[in-house]
Each structure stands twice: as structure tokens, then as C-alpha cells.
Amino acid sequence: MSRGARIWLLVFLGVATARLQTAGLPLWAYGYIALPATPGDYSARCLGERPLDCDRAGGLPSDPQNIIRRLPGSDAAFTIAQINYRYGPADWFPGDHPAMPGIVANGKEALGLRACALCHLPNGKGLMQNGGVAGLPAQYILQQLADFSSGRRRSADLNKANAFEMAAIARNLTADETKAAAAYFSSIPFTPWIRVVETERIPVFTATVNGLLLKADGDATEPLGQRLIELPEDTYQTNMLRNPRSGFVAYAPPGSLARGEALSQGCRACHGADLKGVGNVPPIAGRSSSYIGRQLYDFQQGARNGDMARLMKPAVDTLSDDDLIAIAAYVASQQP
Ligand code: HEC
Ligand code: HEC
Fold first, then answer.
1. How close is the Cα of 334 to the center of ligand 2, in Å?
2. Which residue's CA lies nearest to atom 17 of ligand 2?
3. Which residue has the higher pLDDT, 70 or 13?
4. Separation between Cα atoms, residue 167 and residue 148, nearest integer Å
């Protein structure tokens, strides 16, 4: 085959894989309103050693005027640049969590490895576009970091830059850093962070490039339809201030909770009667509905394919898109 033909074949294969991966994505779980016209492929782009190479510009807010911001109940004061500082983001409430290990608080600037606390927040509650890591069993966290690192866990959405950055981060941690981060996050109890509401209409919203959905200004509403839409309770508190005490609300189609309860009976055999986890099987109750939906779809696609993940696959194989909505809504509505 000529060189030109080979290049065209590669381009064709690349486009074909990207289509296959994105065709059935439940958009709500991946933080899209609509798929971008040409979704990127971060699986290839992030194979370099610097995790920051995976970053997609425009994901974080900026404030050229550097106004000092404050939060009720906190003595701290930060500018938006400080709040989003890659190697030491704002810690509004240091009393809410144990002392952070260096890797969690600061990452590793020399490697372009951003602080865990930037994305998952200092208290590990996480945002819908990443996920909560607080209160997970340490052994489970270690296993996930190993699976990200080996490529046995990735996102079904090749355009999900932050998930591929997460894998690059896992590849660049030392054994000691991995252990310190796992011990830290697992020691923090996961407390209520999301409220689930059944409704037919929801606030009009926008999407950031990294998969955080945000209520638009004003009081306009739109039909929810067959989606499960998770929004910060307060756009300014979450997106601008990264207030680690301001959580999320998920809007679910009427009937989701009852249907989800019925569908999730089988989950209890492994995740526990209250879905709070058993041994190294992770707790799922009360966690981000988008994160849960995204993981269920990733398991279905085989994108999470570690030894432990294979136990999950039969439980999700036959679930329809509507089942994912009902289950994710119900599980998120439970007491963590
Ligand atoms: C650039 C943002 C970012 C940073 C920084 C980051 N993560 Fe993540 N992390 C993610 C995303 C995104 C996911 C979820 C991927 C998905 O949904 O497929 C994730 C998932 C995880 C998970 C899996 C959680 C679960 O419930 O299975 C663990 C564990 C984790 N991260 C630990 C860490 C640790 C430890 C650090 C610091 C060393 C870190 N992360 C830094 C973005 C980040
Ligand atoms: C046979 C045991 C088993 C059953 C049944 C099962 N799970 Fe799991 N589940 C697991 C294991 C083990 C993991 C950890 C997978 C890994 O390490 O990647 C997991 C992981 C998950 C995760 C990812 C958690 C995270 O933090 O990323 C979600 C969400 C989940 N399960 C939901 C469910 C739901 C909903 C059901 C029922 C429809 C269910 N599981 C049924 C064993 C099971």
C-alpha cells in the first residue's frame, strides 16, 4: 500500500472508531447537550508522559480583574486564579478534612501533574465530570489507579479529556504517592452531596468543555425528556468558587425512582443491602448520578475491563438506556 493510502486508511479507521464509541453515548452521563461535530481522540493524544498534555483549554473560568472572593463560613480569600491553581488550588475549609498529602494538595508541577484536589476537591467529593473519591475503600482506589495506569480502565468517550488525563496521572504516580492518596481519600466519609428530583421541566442549562452542566442565568425552563440532568445547586458557588460544601441536584423523569429501585435489587448482592459497599466492592449510594450512569455505560462497552470490573459486566449487559437513567437516579437518591 502506498504511503498516501496508508494515511487515508488510518484516518478512516480513526474516524470509524470515534463514531463507534460515540454513537450510543448517553449524552447526559458524559456532560454533553449535543456531541461536538468532530469529537477529539484523547486516547492517542495523552500517551505522552505529561498528564497536562491532555488538558483541553477553556475548561476553567478566569477573571482578568483578579477580584478577591470569599465564602460564608471560611476565613480564606482567593482570586479565581488561586482557586483554580493547578498545583495548589483553594482549600476553603481545611478543618473539613485531615491534612492533605503533598500529591493531593499540590500534584507534581515538574511533571505537569495537577493536584488531585483540583478536580476531586480537597474533601474528595468531586464534581460530576470527574467523580467522588472520598469514602472509597483504599484497596479499591489502588485497583482503579492500577487499571487506569495499565489501560484496563478508560472512558468509552474518547473525547473525555479529563478521563484520559486521569489515566496519565495514574501512570506518573510513585507507589508511595498512590498509597498516600488512597489512604487519604478513603479516610474521609462521603456525606450527602446530591438531591434527586422527579420532574418534567428543568432549568435551561449550558455545558462546559469538560462535561460540567450549568444552569443558565434567568428562570427559563425546558422539557427534561428521557434524560437525567445533574446541575450544581448553585452555578457560581460550584463553577467559580469551587465551594466544596455546595452540592448538586439531579432531575429525573417521573417514575425513575420506583423503576430504579426495582431494577437495582440484584446490585445489592455485591454492593450491600444499602448500596454502601461491602469489602472492596465500592459504595455507590448517594454519589453523582452522571458519574454512576457513565460508569454503567463504560462497563457495558467493556471500557472498564479490570479483573474486578468483569464482575460488573453481567449486571449491566442487558440494561437499556432508560434503565440506566432509572438506576442512576435511584442509586444517587440513596443515603451515602
Ligand atoms: C484533571 C482532573 C483530575 C485530576 C487532577 C485527578 N483526577 Fe481522578 N479522576 C478524574 C476523572 C475525570 C475521573 C473519572 C473518569 C471517568 O468518569 O471515566 C477520575 C476518577 C478517579 C478515580 C476513580 C473513582 C471511582 O469511583 O472509581 C480515582 C480513584 C481517582 N480519580 C483518583 C485520583 C487521584 C488519587 C488523583 C491525584 C493523584 C486524581 N484522581 C487526580 C479527573 C482527575
Ligand atoms: C457480581 C457482583 C456485582 C453486582 C451484581 C453488581 N456490581 Fe457493581 N461493581 C462490582 C465490582 C466488583 C465493582 C468494582 C469494579 C472495578 O473494580 O472496576 C463494581 C463497580 C460498580 C460501579 C462503579 C463505582 C465507581 O466508584 O466507579 C457502579 C456505579 C456499580 N458497580 C453499580 C452497580 C449497579 C447499579 C448494579 C446493579 C444493576 C451493580 N453494580 C451490580 C460488583 C457488582
1. 16
2. 308
3. 70
4. 5
